[in-house]
# Entry
Amino acid sequence: MAEQEIQGEQPSNGKKEKKPLTSMQKRTITAVAYLLIWVAMCALKWCVPQGNVHGGWGAIGFDLVFTAVSVIGAHEFLRAIDRSESGVNCKISFPQHCITVAFCAMIVPLYVIVEMAMGGGLLAISCGFTVYVMFLAATSVFDHKRSSVKGTIYCVFCMLYCGVLSSLLSAINHLAQNSMVAILVIFMCPVLTDTGAFLIGSAFKKWVPMKLAPQLSPNKTVIGAVGGIIGGILGAILAYYTMYIFGGVNGNIAFFGMNDVYLSVRSTTFPAIVSFILVGLFTSVMAQIGDLFESAIKRECGVKDMGNLLPGHGGVLDRFDSMLYSSVVVLISFGTII
# Structure
């Protein structure tokens, strides 16, 4: 009788039910997919350069990713604002939402087309942003009942945060010199910053429990931030030696030199490796500020994640917030120091 009851509890098809994936398993699968896509795009950019510029057709893969970050990030941001508890006093009309997402979809391709055709992509970004603000102001005036000044300001910030910063990532992708190593830095430094902060923070928080920003992110500690800086510096060093091994410096091939892809160092003030250490330091600091700012936005809006597109990681902004903030530092660094 007992055996019959046990058999009756089993599924009729005789198969065991599959257990749902854990959060860590989802994070791992997403991270592996992210890594494979990144490696494929790096290979495309590396193998299809335009002379030694690396801003030609091989760079389009990264441009598509940055366009997706701009569009999806804008949608996530505006949706979080609409769902926030303060949304009653922050009205964003449907036309404003559509215009903001549409311009975020246009800003990266606008930069790429103008930059590749004639140069002056940053000027195109400025003009595009100005036109967007004029359109947005018009919708606020003629659809005032369904919009508010506060909502309009949030839309402008969304365009700056998601659209303009994503186009700066494309500007890094199309640098006249060293765009390949700059792409390595902009991807490696934020990732290793997060890794270093997690590992060192977890290992030493018992002895150094001082919180970094307890009101925004209670789990982040000062010692974790130090670990993040160490990780960011290691990311920049890793990017440097990757170029040194596979491309060489100033045209001098090291080991596996491919095509004419190499690191071109202009500065004579510091050795190249010292310049990269400084870039890693400031990139890591900006990456952590970007992460904390994203936490502030989510706390203000009362949401845990900006989205659920990336299983185990949240939304696009949850994954690329550090990179968006770091884009300014990397672009300036590779335009001046290196």
Summary: The beta strands are 211-213, 217-221.
